[in-house]
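A reminder from the course coordinator: this example appears on the midterm review sheet, so study it carefully.

Given structure:
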């Protein structure tokens, strides 16, 4: 294999690598923008989880409850 072909492969990696990385990041950002739940639903679910966890551990020694 000639040295010129090594440079060509390296050029492809250096040029296409950042482009592919940018496309992957852009795709991930766009995918995360469309939330499936509203903030109110998220807050309600969090409060329910905290209450359930508190009830599950309220009789343990050292729980402070």
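Designed residues:
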């Amino acid at each position: 294999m000639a040295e010129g072909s090594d440079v060509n492969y390296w050029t492809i990696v250096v040029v296409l690598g950042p482009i592919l990385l940018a496309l992957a990041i852009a795709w991930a950002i766009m995918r995360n923008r469309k939330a499936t739940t509203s903030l109110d639903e998220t807050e309600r679910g969090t409060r329910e989880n905290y209450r359930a966890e508190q009830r599950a551990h309220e009789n343990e020694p050292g729980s402070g409850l």
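The longest helix spans residues 3-33. The mean pLDDT is 85.
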